[in-house]
Structures are given as structure tokens and as C-alpha cells.
UniProtKB/TrEMBL annotation:
Residues 1-37 are annotated as: Disordered. Monomer. Associates with the 50S ribosomal subunit. SUPFAM superfamilies: P-loop containing nucleoside triphosphate hydrolases. This is GTPase HflX. GTPase that associates with the 50S ribosomal subunit and may have a role during protein synthesis or ribosome biogenesis. It comes from Leucobacter komagatae. The lineage of its organism: Bacteria, Bacillati, Actinomycetota, Actinomycetes, Micrococcales. Gene3D superfamilies: 6.10.250.2860, GTPase HflX, N-terminal domain, P-loop containing nucleotide triphosphate hydrolases. Belongs to the TRAFAC class OBG-HflX-like GTPase superfamily. HflX GTPase family.
Amino acid sequence: MSDFMNDKTDDVTAETEHVTSPQQSDALAQGTSDDPLERVLRRAAGAGASVIRDLSEAQALGSSAHDDLDDGDHGIQMDREDRASLTRVAGLSTELEDVTDVEYRQLRLENVVLIGVYSSARAKSAQESLDEAENSLRELAALAETAGATVLDGVLQRRANPDPATYFGKGKAQELAELVRALGADTVIADDELGPSQRRALEDVVNAKVIDRTTVILDIFSQHAKSREGKAQVELAQLEYLLPRLRGWGESMSRQAGGQVGAAGAGMGSRGPGETKIELDRRRINTRMARLRKQIAGFAPAREAKRANRKRGAVPSVAIAGYTNAGKSSLLNRLTGTQELVQNQLFATLDTAVRHSETQDGRSFTFVDTVGFVRNLPHQLVEAFRSTFEEVGESDVIMHVVDASHPDPEAQIKTVRDVIAEVDAQGIPEVVVFNKADLIDDSRRMLLHGLAPTGVFVSARTGEGLEELRERIDAAIPTPDREVTVVVPYDRGDLVAELHERNRVLELEYDEAGTRVHAFVTPEMFAKLDAFLV
Ligand SMILES: Nc1nc2c(ncn2[C@@H]2O[C@H](COP(=O)(O)OP(=O)(O)OP(=O)(O)O)[C@@H](O)[C@H]2O)c(=O)[nH]1
Ligand SMILES: [Mg+2]
């Protein structure tokens, strides 16, 4: 058996059918038709075949049918509670008017229903929790659209926690199945990351493909990545996401093969084919991941060299960070006259762009446009894009762009600051910029002012506030304009290193007492060197 697997590691589907009995091969073929692994490894377009089966007459549509649905599983009391907890989020539908656009979309895109679970059990009021969940679902709708899907509807259920078995409770999952059928949706997207068995179980109930927020974000990243490094980073993140999920997926296939509910992992006969495939896939994934890691490591020297170059020239950098779609690239274009890609899409920018600029008094610096952030950014992506985010950590100033017209700017700001903290960039001076000021009224300005009193209101569209923004950035960029001579003791090599980073070293020699340095330094550095002045 192992010889066989070693011989052919190229085509999993074909192999699986070889090692399977004729009765099983059918079920397996069906199982692999929307195999996420195949999608990632092969990038085959349009592989998302759905598995909609005919529902029985008893589950016909209409509100009366809905009313009867839960009776089998729950007590009446719980039923009412459950039903009252289900909220439709209005205004999510993104179906288009434009006929040609519709035709275009129908050819390539999936019709999706979004689902989310929220709880009112924590410190927040029920209304607050609901608002937050609705915003999150709206964002998921934007993500789904960006990925190329048409959003048909969105449904939230109030529950203390997502159901460990099927995410939605059993009764609600049945209702969801009805809705999916009524709308002709082929995919359900959950707003939380789903466990492997949760995903499968929910798929079984709703008879449609089920994916989660992470999958959507990974999908967008893979569509948008342009550079070879970006592409490798995304693929690595996708495989990292898939690897721990192979088990549940294999179990489900075994179950299909055995045709017996609850047989997952129970009998040798039913476990066999799934396990074989898992082993095979795991090996392929690990091989591929090792290759990607090597490839990505290969990019590091070039990136380091570029960075080192920038540093050697002692040119300070301003990192443009912020939530995705906040208008970072638009502002960069406005401030430097460049033509970065601007799109009303999430994650339009995936490759860092560095642009040269000058302060009003003629000092050079660079702007670095970065990947946008989003709530629940999959940690696999944070890992894969660590080098990109680290650009933020190594900058001299962070220009934190906030979409002033966003329904929940506070959450946006928090998300961005969380990522900033993750790359140890908290100490870097931050200029908060409320962009899209053309879209907001005065009461909104007041609210935003309360969130960040020193924030600058600008509009990349109208040009409002850009002068003030330039001044604020100029002022935040540290200038090495203080001349010092210091003797830094040898156990403070860190200070000498820092002196080289953002200051201008004129002379350096090694004395008995320590390193004697003559330099122009920034006010910040000056304060640190106070004890060593000569
Ligand atoms: N009304 C208005 N729209 C703006 C403004 N600035 C940007 N936009 C729009 O907001 C959308 C996103 O702009 P981008 O510059 O691509 O945003 P980004 O932050 O670079 O986004 P990602 O790269 O996707 O993270 C585009 O549709 C812009 O036209 C503004 O000041 N006012
Ligand atoms: Mg951008």
C-alpha cells in the first residue's frame, strides 16, 4: 500500500478511486467534487459543485411549514425562545439591477446565505450584541461580495454559544435548510470559524456547501495576491488552515461510504478509505508547505536588503495602516500623486507599496501602504503576512486610517490597534486619520472626536483636511537635529544599534569606557542618551 502511495502522489482523486471498492467510489467521487484541498493545490476555477438533494414534500415552503419545524427536537417552550432569538438582517441582499452584470455573475458566482450566532450573556446589552453581530454580518457580506459571491440573505441566531454539533441549533439549522432551498442558494457562510465536524454536520442538514469567514478571507487573499511572495504566503496560509481540518472531512467521507449514521471512526470497514486519503493528503500538504516555506524564506534576503537600504539612507518611514477599505491607498495617491490600486473592495492592496515623499521643509521620508486589517483576521494569515505587518512595526510613524463612515469605527480602531500591538509597534507615534469625512455629518464628527481627540478629519475624495494631515505627519516624523557626543558603556550595545537606526552618526570610536559617538539625534533618542553625554 505504501509503495503504491509513493508511486503516484500527483492525483489524489484518481488514487482514491483505485483503493476503493466500486460501491464506495461513487460516494467518494461526490465527496471530492468540492474538495477544498484540490481547489487550493490546483487552483481549478469553478470547482464549487454543490450537493443539493431534493427535500421531501413535508418540508415545503411557507410560514406554516416553518412553524411546525422544530417540534421533533425541542420542547415547545424552548422552541418559542429559540424562534424569538432568530433575527433577519435587513438590507444585506446584493443582487444587482444591471442585467449584463447579473448574467456575468450567474455564470461564475455563487449565491450565498450568511449566518451568525450572537449572545447577550456577556456584559453587553442584548441590543448592543445584536448591533455588533449585524455589523459583523454586513462586513461578511462585503467580504463575500469581494470574493465574487452574490449575497441573498443573512440570518442571526441568539444563543449563548454556537452549537458544537451544527453551529446553529438543530431546529434553526432545519429552518436554514428551508431558506437555502427557497432562495436557491448554493452556499452558506458562517461568520465564525467552524470546526471540521461542525461544518460537515451543518452541510448535511442544509444540503448546501458550508464555509466560514476564514475561508472567504483566504479566498480573497488568494485572488488578490499579485507578487510571487504574496501568492506563496497565501497558499501557505490556506494549507495551514486545511491541515487540521482533514480529519473531520475524512470521517465524513467514511460515513458516506459506510452509509451508516454515527459510523464515523467506528468500524474498520468504514474508516479505511478516509484514513488512507487523509494520510495521503497530509503528506502532500506537508511536502507542499515545506516547499512554500523554503520559497518564502528565499524572498527574505531581497526584502531585508531593501529595508536595510531605506534605513541606511536614514530616511524615516510612515506606515499607512488601517482597516481594509478605509481609503489607505486613496490617501497615499492623494498625498504623493501616485496611482495605487483603489477599489471598493476589501483587501485591494496585498503587496506593500513604498512611495517617496518630502516634508514641507524638504526632509525625505517614505510612505508604506500596507495590507488592510479586518476583524477576526485568520491567524494563519497574520502569520503568513508577518513580514508585511512588521513593516508597520519598523516604521517611524503610523498613519492610522479610519473609515469615518463605517457603522462601528470603535471596533475598527480596536482591531487595528490589536494588530499593531501584535507586531510590537505600540511605542511608535500614531496619527489617527478619519477619512471619508465627505460622507459624515456633525454629530458623527463629535462621536469620532470622542474616540480619538487628536484625529484629523480628511477626505481623499474632496481633498478636505489634507494640508492639516501633511503638517501632522511632518511634525510626527522624528528629525535628527540635536548634536551630541556620548560615551555609551559596552553593556548598552542596544543604544548604539538604535543610534544607527534612526539617527545620523558622524563619528564612532571605541574608548576604554565604552563606545564614543558623535551624532545628530532625534529628540526621543536624545532623552535616552541623557546619562551618557560628555
Ligand atoms: N466618499 C469617499 N470615498 C472614499 C474616500 N477615500 C476612499 N474612498 C473609497 O473607498 C474605497 C476604498 O478605498 P481604498 O483606497 O482602496 O482603500 P484601502 O484602505 O486601500 O483598502 P484595501 O487596500 O482594500 O485595504 C474606494 O471605493 C474609494 O473610492 C473618501 O474620502 N470619501
Ligand atoms: Mg489599498
